[in-house]
Amino acid sequence: MPSKPMPDDWQRALVVAAHPDDIEYGLAAAVAVWTAAGKEVHYLLATRGEAGMAGVPPEEAGPLREDEERRSAAVVGVTEVEFLDHRDGVLVAGPELRRDLAGAIRRHRPELVVTGYFGPTWTPPGVSPAYLNSADHQALGQSVLDAVADAGNEWIFPDLAEEPWRGVQYIAVGELLDPPHEVDVSGTVELAVQSLSEHRRYLELLSDDPVDMQARQVVDMSTLKEDGGRRVGFRLYWG
Ligand SMILES: [Zn+2]
Predict the structure, then answer these.
(1) Which of 83, 98, 206, 219 is the most core-located residue (most Cβ within 10 A)?
(2) How many Å lie between the centroid of ligand 1 and the Cα of residue 19?
(3) Digits of tens for pLDDT over the chain (239 positions)?
(4) Cβ atoms of residues 32 and 192 within 8 Å
C-alpha cells in the first residue's frame, strides 16, 4: 500500500530516544525537513549513552556523547536537547521512566511526539538476517507511548510539578517496512550524513572506515529509496 505524507498541522515536535546517535540513525533526515519548513523540534534523550563506547569509561563517555549529540542536533536545526539521567543499558519500561518522560513532555509541550522503531527485531529492506533491537530501545518506545497519556493526566503522577499537557495530536514511530506515512527526505540526505558524522569519537571506535563513509552507509540503510527519491517512514498514532 503506498504511504501517505505525514500530516503537517503541527508546529512543535519532541523527538525522544534512548541514546545519543539513535535519532541520527534515520530520523534526523526528517527532522531537517521539518526545521527547514519553520517547525520547532526538540530532542529528549533518556540516557547519555555512557555504556556505548568500548574502552572508554562511562564517566568520560557520557559527557563526550552528550556533546556529540548537541552538535548533531545543531546540524539539523535543533537547539533544545534535554537529557534525562537514566542509566544506559538498563532502561526499564515502567512508572519511573514514564514519569520522567511525562514531565519532559509537559515541559516541551509538543503537538507531535516522535520516537524510533521499538519492536524486538528490525529488518531494513534487503537485509537478512534481521537485527536485534536493544532492550533500551524496546523499553523506551513503549514508555513514550504511555507517557503521552500520562502527561495529560493529573492523577497518575500527581507529584510532577509541570502542568498537564494534552496537546499531543500525533505520535510517530519510525517504521522501515511498508510505513503507512512518510517524509520525503530527498533534499536532506546530506544533512543527515553530516548530523550522524558529528558522533565522531563514537563512530571511530566502531569501525576503521572513515566516519563520513560509515554515516553515509547508515543513512542509506535507514532511509527508503523509491523512484530515485528518499523517504523516512513512520507509523502514526493519535496522541
Ligand atoms: Zn540506541
Answers:
(1) 219
(2) 5
(3) 678 999 999 999 999 999 999 999 989 999 999 999 999 999 999 999 999 999 999 999 999 999 999 999 999 999 999 999 999 999 999 999 999 999 999 999 999 999 999 999 987 777 788 889 999 999 999 999 999 999 999 999 999 999 999 999 999 999 988 899 999 999 999 999 999 999 999 999 999 999 999 999 999 988 988 777 899 999 999 99
(4) yes
Could you give the CA distance from residue 11 to residue 38 in angstroms, rounded to a whole number?
A: 8
Q: Containing domain of residue 228, as a range?
A: 4-238
- 118 CA distance to ligand 1 centroid (A)? 10
For the chain, what is the domain count?
A: 1
pTM of the model: 0.97
Kindly give the distance from the C-alpha atom of residue 239 to the centroid of ligand 1, in angstroms, as a whole number.
24
CATH number, domain with residue 14:
3.40.50.10320
Q: Count of CB atoms within 10 A of residue 189's CB?
A: 17
Identify whether the C-beta of residue 185 lies closer than 8 Å to the C-beta of residue 231. yes
**Beta carbons within 8 Å of 232's beta carbon, 6+ residues apart:** 26, 27, 29, 30, 174, 182, 183, 185, 222, 223, 224
Distance CA 107, CA 59 (A): 27
CA of 61 to the centre of ligand 1 (A): 14
